[in-house]
Amino acid sequence: MVRLHKHRRIFCVRFLSTLAVFMPSPYETLESHWLKRGIEYEYREEDLANKSPLLLEMNPVHKKIPVLIHNGKPVSESLVILEYIDEVWKDKSPLLPSDPYQRAQARFWADFVDKKIYNGGRRVWFGKGEKQGGKKELMDGLKLLEGELGEKAYFGGDKFGFLDVAFIPFYSCFDSCESCGKLEIEEHFPKLIAWAKRCMHKDSVSKTMAMADPAKIHEYILMIRKKYGIE
């Protein structure tokens, strides 16, 4: 069962009462994508303005999402959760390659996306006096990622993998980045756009990304900018 509330940003995914994930919507749908691969689950929303006892109990250190609760045991942070899921459900077409070096590279670039791309986007949207720095950080990061993609269908080659899952949620934010930062992402990075559209043809991606409507993302970002007087 999926329960979504218009004014809440956080939701929880519960699997047969043994597994739950707290994550923000629509910005980080990493675990949601992978958990759709044949595993039964239920969405529930968590309001971070009024954190539930369960969230505080399961992540007492940071008191934030995402948190995966599997058989009563919590796992925190998006990429860590994604790797955990990949290891536990090894029979579900693993996202990480078997070669140790290729696994290390996938982890490196996924961490790059998490720290540089999302951070650059946040600075473009919400940075007061640092928008130019955010624009450069974002565009430089996208340039590096396009170079890493090269002529491949996906970042790992012919197979949709770990880095693809880590990066594809940000595709829903391209429009807002272009609008708020007066950027031309599609014009400057045609290979990334082609890659994103290729990913969107996968059912597991398109169904997950349907929750991350670019128009709603932009509406939310504009609301926050207005609230804090960001022009």
From TrEMBL:
Record InterPro entries: Glutathione-S-Trfase_C-like, Glutathione-S-Trfase_C_sf, Glutathione_S-Trfase, Glutathione_S-Trfase_N, GST_C_Tau, Omega/Tau-like, Thioredoxin-like_sf
This protein's record includes keyword Cytoplasm: yes
Domain GST C-terminal: 99-230
GO molecular function, one term: glutathione transferase activity
Primary location class: cytoplasm
PROSITE patterns in UniProt: GST_CTER (PS50405), GST_NTER (PS50404)
Keyword Signal: yes
GO CC, alphabetical: cytosol
EC number, UniProt record: 2.5.1.18
Source taxon at top rank: Eukaryota
Record field: catalytic activity: RX + glutathione = an S-substituted glutathione + a halide anion + H(+)
One of the GO biological process terms: glutathione metabolic process
Compartments, record wording: Cytoplasm, Cytosol
Role according to the record: Is involved in the conjugation of reduced glutathione to a wide number of exogenous and endogenous hydrophobic electrophiles.
PANTHER family (alphabetical): GLUTATHIONE S-TRANSFERASE U26 (PTHR11260:SF773), GLUTATHIONE S-TRANSFERASE, GST, SUPERFAMILY, GST DOMAIN CONTAINING (PTHR11260)
Protein family membership: Belongs to the GST superfamily.
Protein name: Glutathione S-transferase
Species per Swiss-Prot/TrEMBL record: Sesamum alatum
Upper lineage: Eukaryota, Viridiplantae, Streptophyta, Embryophyta, Tracheophyta
